[in-house]
Amino acid sequence: MGKKKARAPKGDVTVKVDPKLKKEYDALVALIATASRKESEDFDARWEAAAKIVDHELYVLGGFKNAEGFFREVMQEEPRNARRYMRVAKYASPAEETTYGTSKLEVALGFIEAKLGHSLEHPPLPVAFEKLRVPVGKGTKSLDAASVPEITAATSKLTASWHKKPKTPAQKALSEQIAKIDSLDGVRVHEHAGLVSFTGVPLGAIHHFIRALTAAKLPASPKPKS
What we know:
Blueprint: E1 5-7, E2 14-16, H1 19-36, H2 39-55, H3 67-75, H4 79-91, H5 94-100, H6 102-116, E3 133-136, E4 139-142, H7 148-164, H8 169-178, E5 188-192, E6 195-199, H9 206-215
Antiparallel strand pairs: 1-2, 3-4, 5-6
Helix pairs in contact: 1-2, 2-4, 4-6, 5-6, 6-7
């Protein structure tokens, strides 16, 4: 007999079950449930477990057709917030999460990426939050001393020049289509000399990313001169 199919309680999606992967999924969900009872202490464990499930698309073993359903049902969070929490858990230690708070760490990561001009994942880079200096007025502040609004303002100044640059028709079409999908929040489209690249594409949302590219109405390419 072939392998049985497992159906989600709500009938969301039907998948073939790999016993080993199902055991891994169940263990991660159990960890999430335990950590959820003492959120302030186990934030890191909870969201790192969620990231493992999403990065490897294990949510299908729980009957979810996408990460968004998993976030809302299991994590009890809206997708945009959930992805931010996973990012903080990935780059910050439990001690840093306690010291700075998740809101400040999340905007700090955005500030660092604005300084770099690309996602921290391309290439993967370690983050030394204790060495970070945030421009405030005519000076700078440590991450501990800077407020969330001050970090956000510093990030806006860094990215202001990006928004002033006119987008090409192709870049505009791709950006608009990507912006329609919550799980692609943070993805950036770059075009130069006829070449296009993307930064910040979540592995767990790659199928949504491909769908967005396919749906984008790109301008016709110029005909080569004869």
